[in-house]
Amino acid sequence: MTTLSRRRFLTISASAGAALAIGGAAQAAPLYRWQGMALGASASITLAHPQAERITARARQEIERLEQIFSLHRPNSALARLNRDGVLANPPFELLECLGQCGAVHAATGGAFDPSVQPLWTLYAEAAARGGYPDAGEIEATLPLVGWQQVAFDSSEIRLARPGMALTLNGIAQGYIADRVVALLRREGLEDVLVDTGEMRAIGAMPGAPEGWPVSLQIGEETLRDALRLREMALASSAPLGTVLDAQGRIGHVMDPTSGRPAPARWQLVSITAPSAAIADALSTAGCLMQEAALQRAVAGFAGAAIAHLA
Predict the structure, then answer these.
(1) Among 258, 250, 243, which residue's Cα sits nearest to residue 290?
(2) Per-residue pLDDT, 10
(3) Phi and psi of 61, rounded to 5°?
(4) Whether pTM exceeds 0.85
(5) CA distance 206 to 94
(6) Which end of the chain is less congested by CB atoms within 10 angstroms, N or C?
(7) Is the per-residue pLDDT at 184 higher than 70?
(8) Stretch 254-270: mean pLDDT, rounded?
(9) What is the C-alpha to C-alpha distance for residues 26 and 138, in angstroms, rounded to an integer?
(10) β-strand 151-153 against 157-160: which pairing, if any?
(11) pLDDT tier at 8, thresholds 50, 70, 90
């Protein structure tokens, strides 16, 4: 069996004793935190509201609905059906919207962000399960199945150009789900919430801390306590060896669509802030393959985005 370990880079430094004044009254609601899973990663929603459990129950339903679109591991998800059949008729709006964001980040990063690398990921995962590494011939044979330009989509269908092609949205979908959950919570009238689906998106600030939600960053074995405050912003982090496919921890999950090899361990952590968690997620993934100057240019192409940490 393939070894797949996932490290968490972001932690909430919030105090569970915070309270919020509701509607200008002297009422106080304790800080409530739901914890669960989203696309295989630990997830949480932190808010202060007298109906927190009801509200987070609706958010959990939204996460479940979106998993049925984006999951690689649910055989009947929209993405799994696309990868199996090479075409998906009448695709969900959310999948189309996410693919549009993929195209924007692909262009901005000079192709470093490419969701069509799934065949490479599978190749390396299967080799790691055998205790080895794919040889040069196997990599060369797989590369023709990689290339964003071979993905066509519109409101009627999504089509992959070659048999054997497949997409992974693991480098953007967690952020996208955070954005969608935030949209739902805004419709509920919430003003101070932190959503964490593997990537973070903040509404307002932590009650009692108007400068923003305190977030710590994990860099290897080191924790940067309260590294930044998140307010009306998203934060995503990636690392070449943040998720590994082998027991030795040498085969990282970020694949280079040009060489067909895992990203070099150039960075320990790439953290990006942006108004959209999906965009921050995709940029941080691409950043694992990029030099600093190229990443700076890519990030500058998205309003409000910035490199929060690069080490």
Answers:
(1) 258
(2) 60
(3) -65, -40
(4) yes
(5) 29
(6) N
(7) yes
(8) 95
(9) 66
(10) antiparallel
(11) low
Q: Which of 190, 255, 221, 213 is nearest to 56 (CA)?
A: 190
β-sheet with 28-38: strand ranges across: 19-21, 28-38, 41-48, 193-196, 200-203, 234-238, 270-274, 306-310
Distance CA 294, CA 298 (A): 6
Q: Helix, strand, or coil here: 237?
A: strand
Give the Cα-Cα-Cα angle 228, 183, 33 (nearest 5 degrees): 55
CA–CA separation, 218 vs 37, rounded Å? 20
Domains of the chain in sequence order: 5-20+27-310 (3.10.520.10)
Average pLDDT over residues 220-247: 91
**Do 112 and 165 meet the contact criterion of CB atoms below 8 Å apart?**
no
Task: Please report, for residues 43, 134, 168, 252, the alpha-carbon distance to residue 141 in angstroms, rounded to integers and kept in the order given.
Answer: 37, 11, 19, 20
Element (H, E) at 45: strand 41-48
More confident residue, 207 or 177: 177
Which DSSP helix (H) or strand (E) runs through 126?
helix 118-129
